[in-house]
Amino acid sequence: MNKVFEIVSEDQYFLVLNKIARIVVQPSPKKEKRTLTSLLEKHLKEKIYICHRLDKNTQGLIIYAKSKQIHKNITGQFRKREVKKKYLALTEGNFKKNKGVFKGLILDKEGRKFKEKPKKSETSYKVLKRCKGFDFIELIPKTGRTNQIRIHLAQAGHPILGEKKYAFRRDFMIKFNKLALCAYWLKLRHPVSSQQIMVKIGVPEYMKNFIEKGRRL
């Protein structure tokens, strides 16, 4: 069985994981029994509380609280947009500009199904490396809408490599067998000491290997 997660940072109040495998965080309407949360609770032998979302197909950092009080504090930081996050992605084609901002009203597929209203969203991007047929970019979401980054990049005509939900696979020049998106950096206020905590992981190996094989422009 492939490794599902690794603990990147932990103290008596909360912990930060690197979610490695394609696994749901919590049960969906399909009622999965094997989730990131269930496996983590089995590993820790205690009840824990998820503080935010991360897609099944997205790798990266995710926060769990060890008590309801700490969970309330951290989720409150998310609601106030005090928690900062950065992502890395491989995207189809090459951007004309090295950096920019996506703004607009978006609605994910689940929201459309339940007839929700589109919401304001904003994501900034910066090209870190240009390769033949794709870019390696950093993204900073200013708002926290569901699937925001995936939607913004698809709408811009530069979908994430491996995207199946918001782009047609037949339209990709480069075939990729997983979603090339990773939540690699986050910063929050410690729920007890109030000190700023920054957690970061390196570029995932599957991304790094692909970039090294790609021919730079």
Level-2 CATH architecture:
2-Layer Sandwich
Mean pLDDT over the full residue set = 90
| Overall geometry | globular
Order of helices and strands: EEHEEHEEHEEHEEH
Assign the CATH topology. Answer: Pseudouridine synthase
CATH superfamily: Pseudouridine synthase
Helical content (DSSP H or I, runs of 4+): 10-25%
Main beta-sheet annotation: 10 strands, mixed
- State which percent range the strand residues make up: 25-35%
* Structural class computed from helices and strand pairing: alpha+beta
Domain module count = 1
Q: State the distance separating the first and last CA atoms.
A: 38 Å
Radius of gyration: 18 Å
CATH class placement: Alpha Beta
- What's the total helix number? 5
Number of strands: 10
Low-confidence stretches: none
